[in-house]
Structure formats: structure tokens, C-alpha cells
Amino acid sequence: MDPLALNADxxxxxxxxxxxxxxxxxxxxAHANGVxxxxxxxxxxxxxxxxxxxxxxxxxxxxxxxxxISVTFAGKTVHIVGLGFDIDDAALRDGLAATRGGRSDRxxxxxxxxxxxxxAGAYEGALKYASNPDLVSRxxxxxxxxxxxxxxxxxxxxxxxxxxxxxxxxPHRWATLSDAVRWIxxxxxxxxxxxxxxxxxxxxxxxxxxTEFKQLGGEGVEVVTGSHRPDEYPKxxxxxxxxxxxxxxxxxxxxxxxxxxxxxTLAPLPGGLIPxxxxxxxxxxxx
Length: 287
Known about the structure:
Blueprint: E1 8-9, H1 23-32, E2 37-38, H2 49-58, E3 66-73, E4 76-83, H3 90-100, H4 103-116, H5 122-128, H6 138-147, H7 154-162, H8 177-186, E5 190-193, H9 203-215, E6 220-225, H10 233-243, E7 246-250, H11 276-279
Parallel strand pairs: 1-2, 5-6, 6-7
Antiparallel strand pairs: 3-4, 4-5
Helix pairs in contact: 1-2, 5-6, 6-7
């Protein structure tokens, strides 16, 4: 089998962060959709990893450990996925705990900002959707605003209330790029740039981001992802080749009702790339 044709889904979320399914539920959906290698990558949290691995192996589905780390770079929030690390690594766990530390205060500020805009009870409403109160995010607020009838969909909430410059937007300073790569590599994993097409960098900013990431020891980039348009795949395949990065693939699935790309439904990686799972083969947990 061509390694590029493997139906790997190495970016998705459970209710341990801002998804709506349990780790076991995400595993079952991935398996039902034909995923052949799966990773759960909750935001700044590895608390669901043991459950995810156990569920995957019980289903006969190979598993890679995963996490998505929030990073501040050039004044913007970007995300770095870690794959194939030691789930129980203390330095990674402690670093993620520190990164999560500011989320609770930020969420309360978001609630206060929305209240000032005429939307009462937003913080308490968002909290209902978060199984982990330390990880209340904009997505949880968006679900509450849809439930309340303020907006018809979560994308509409983001456009009108939660994007930069809107009433409910509150910036937060995350980990540094150096922190994220160091934690992942220190735990034996590979650092991967998540959905680079989402960040609206200028060409100069994007080149600087990729260059610094590589200098720090980053090794991969998501090329085919639910957060990219198909016409962006060739661009990021070209950047992967230019920088010598391994290529990754993941749906960025959060919810059956919200995600436009389901687990296991992405196009294959373009030709001429080396997939991340080639380098990580010895770190894959198999049934």
C-alpha cells in the first residue's frame, strides 16, 4: 500500500477540550469511517489520551498520542500539534497546565464583555458545554449563543461576537513557539504546524513562522486538513517540500453537528511528500 494513501486522521477533538463527543465516541466514529491510524489532539490537554488509546485498540485501530498546543507568534494565536509523545511525560503535562491556567480568567472576561454587549449569562451558559471548566473556550460560548437564539450558527457567532475587534473577543497570551516544540520533543514526539492556512499571515510572516519552527526542531506541517480548502493543499505540499517537513493530515473534527469535515473523509496527501507516520511508525500503538 502507498503510505500516502493511508486513511490517517491525526487532528480531532473530544469533550476533554472543545469537542462534543467523548474520547471513546470519537474513536468509534473514526473507526466507523474507515480511519486506519488515529490521534486525538485535544487543546492544551492530554487528559483523554489513555481513554482514547484504550478505545482505539479495543476497536482494532492503531493509535498515536496527540495534543494541540496554543501558541502566540507575531501577535497571533497559532497551533502546534504534537504526535507520538509519551502520554505521561511530566514536563509536557506541567507545561500544558500552565498554558491552560489563563483560560478560566479569559473566559470570565469574555462573559463580562458579552454582558456589556447585552448578552447576559454567557459565561455560565458556556460553562454548561465544557466538561472541563479549565478549558472553557470561544467554541463553548458560540454553542451557548446559538442555543440562546442570538445567532443561527457557530460561524455566525464568531463573525459577529468572538473574532478580533468584536464585543466578546478577549486576547490571551499562550505558550511560545519555543515552549511548544521543546515540550513535544522532550516527551519524544514530533511537532507539527496545524492548519497553517488559517492564520492569515502575509507571505513574509508565514516564511518567518516556518523558518523559526524548523530552527527550533519542528518537523511537520498539516497539508490536508478540514481547515484548508482543497486549492490550498498544493501550496502547503510545496512548502512542506521546500522546508523538508513531513506531511500530516487531519480533519480537525469537533462535532457531528458543527464540523464540515467528518473524521476519515479527507483527500489523500499529494504525491512527493513523506507522511509523518513514516517517521513515527515505531511510536504507533497497535492492537
